[in-house]
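Please go through this chain and its backbone structure tokens and walk me through the local backbone shapes. Keep your notes short.
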Amino acid sequence: MRNHKLRIIVPALVIVAVLAFAFWYGGGAPGARGWDAGRPKTEENTQPQTEAQTQTETQTGQPGGDTSHSGGAPASDAQESPTPTTVSGAESPTVSEGEYESEAPSPSPDGVSAPSGGGASAVEVTDSVAPGAELDRPMTAEEKQELAEALAGGQDAAPSPSGDADYSAQLGMQIDPGTGRDRYLTDPVPEGRPIPVEPQDAVTSDTALTCTLSVRCDTILDNISWLDPEKAELVPPDGVIFPAASVTFYEGESVFDVLRREMKRAGIHLEFANTPMYNSAYIEGINNLYEFDCGELSGWMYKVNDWFPNYGCSRYALKDGDVVEWVYTCSLGVDVGGYYSVGG
């Protein structure tokens, strides 16, 4: 009988001991009470965060990879980033049929309106910060013009050619007597300069002619601290994007026609927006350098035979031997001698 009791008691004690040990180890052990012996973090613990950071950098940190810009261009704006080819001057080009084009509002090719009156400017001119960068809002047209005048030191970089209404009318420019401008808000041109030709009225032929074309952004080199840091590697060391070259065009084509074709041929990015109000394409970016990339007063301008036209590039009909220069301004034309064409 005694042995029978022992056979029952002993296993019971063993079971109780096992349960007690399990309770202590699983619920009351040092690690379960929050004690930590300094377990090092492994790569597995930190890798998810690193991957997230890498994804963010890839999406937002690639210069030129994001075609959006501070100017807020619509996503439907036309972009052309063709396969790079060798720049050649005298080949007979194939006229593009207008794919990629879009109609979207964009700043006026004619520039900003005149300031409404006096008063202190809301922005400051410094060497290290782009004009207007200290503001937490876009600059108004008046502020831009006041700032450009301050940058010019009260004097324009070039004499301002005045428009001649009689001369322009004699050449066929239809000027509204009430506004003194044509239907696309263009002032009369100076005597000796061509009046605009509307793209829908242009007549082209198979007569091949030549002009000289160049594209440069050397003014950015003088204001490199103003430039969007992500765009620095896009600026050539000498500021020349497309060196001056003789290119072929056909009679009746415009400055825009030639720029678009030659940038495509050379493999240089081009983005533009059609502006119905001004009946012309507006060039927003070349070589992934956009308006406002180097401050509120920056953007692309063109001149033909040393004159900055007061109308869009789609309305300038080229003549044989013309010299066309696309230049990037950081100060509303002051630094390239074209301030007068944008309201100055």
